[in-house]
Amino acid sequence: MTTTAHNQTGQSKDANVVGTDVSLPQADVAQPSSPPIAALRSDFPILNIQVHGKPLVYLDSAASSQKPQAVLDAMNVYYQTYNANVHRGVYSISEEATAAMERARVKVARFIHARQSKQVIFTRNTTESINLVAFSWGNANIHAGDLIILTEMEHHSNLVPWQLLAARTGARLEFVPVTDDGLLRLDIYDALLKQQPKLVAFTHMSNVLGTINPAQQMIAQAHAVGAIVLLDGAQSIPHLPVDVQALDVDFLCFSGHKMLGPTGIGVLYGKRDLLEAMPPFMGGGDMIRTVKLRESTWNDLPWKFEAGTPAIAEAVGLGAAVDYLNTLGMEHVQQHEQELVAYALAQLRTVPDLTIYGPEADKRGGVVSFTLGDIHPHDLASILDQEVGVAIRAGHHCAQPLMERYNLAATARASFYVYTMREEIDTLVQGLHKARQIFSF
Ligand code: 7TS
């Protein structure tokens, strides 16, 4: 157990809280060979359930991943053996809870190769992380007439906060269009950069098309014209190795629940000078150093941005999820999904009347959106659930402008993760053939 220094307000001063104030060694996490998929699946209790009398085939990990036993256990152990609030109590289990939460922060920081764990701010999810930047950094730095560049493939959570900021400030929004194949029009991005944007915000990987965008190149180009870059990593952090220092990204946002962790915890990573200069997002307990009736001063990073009692069990669960992914090795995770998506594209192309959206397998992660004839994607999802126990997502996937780009109201979407097997893709394909029969194609 480490000891925790406290200042007069009872806030952790972080001096000895595990790792929070230390620079992190940048050695790569060892990449052991992955366990066979069948062995790995037994780590996920939910994969044993049946729906409509058939084994669950869960193909909706882009919406939220399933959780391994290790994550569930880590959260239970917290609740059963050291449940207490953090940064407050000068007693053993509160110090234990504080240390566990800060250890989780260090794990997350190492996972994304951050220089310091104080650059990792715990939020509720990607959406809150983006809103934090839009309010705190945006209100202070974006002015009337300033340009913000986004893309046509953004999730609503990387679109609406910037619309709100533009409405507050009079900033302009411009959008990088998407090709018919689901790739960004980088020629138009080049042209937009000539207009000297203040901010570029884009998704690392599309939750609809699966497209993996060339983030490193796009960030370097944005920096060359003096723009700050926010990367939406909701779909990339769970599935690819990501190194924030190699990317040189200014802000990175992601969610715990899509990377084997619990709901209710997300991350904002930021460059330290940017975070230090930013005013608080929300006010309340924990984020202050001193409070008077009419004014207050702020706590150090990362707590300046963590008002109120945080999601302690969820942070601990996220730390366990990171441990689990490190054991698999993110290169292996990516390779597994790349193989699955190549297999899925080949199999889906054998289904008559099926249209697939997005690029070839080498430019995408484990997400495939499709439509089948004129069957409504919601009907398709219901049939797959009823007939073969396959869970897929149907709808606009919180990307309505992208749907509009392809003249679609909705698509069906299958998405994969570490526990997905080829046999499950075969079951999906069987289900699609059944749907064709039901609709008498
Ligand atoms: N950005 C991207 C690219 C996403 O895919 C999502 C969630 C978010 C942001 C928002 O994440 P949240 O955790 O804050 O909700 N995407 C999806 C999806 O594709 N289906 O359900 C949620």
Features:
single chain, 441 residues, alpha/beta, Aspartate Aminotransferase, domain 2, Aspartate Aminotransferase, domain 1, 2 domains, seven-stranded mixed β-sheet, four-stranded antiparallel β-sheet, 14 helices, 15% strand, disordered N terminus, binds ligand 7TS
Number of structurally distinct domains: 2
Number of strands: 17
**Helix amount, in percent?**
25-40%
CATH superfamily of the largest domain, please?
A: Type I PLP-dependent aspartate aminotransferase-like (Major domain)
User: Which stretches are low in confidence, meaning pLDDT under 50 for 5 or more residues running?
Assistant: 1-22, 26-32
Q: Compute the gyration radius: what is it?
A: 22 Å
- How much of the sequence lies in strands comes to 15-25%
* Widest beta sheet: strand line-up: 4-10-9-8-7-5-6
Overall average residue pLDDT: 93
Largest sheet: 7 strands, mixed
Bound molecules: ligand 7TS
From the coordinates shown, what is the CATH architecture of the largest domain? 3-Layer(aba) Sandwich
Can you identify the CATH class of the largest domain? Alpha Beta
Overall, the morphology is globular
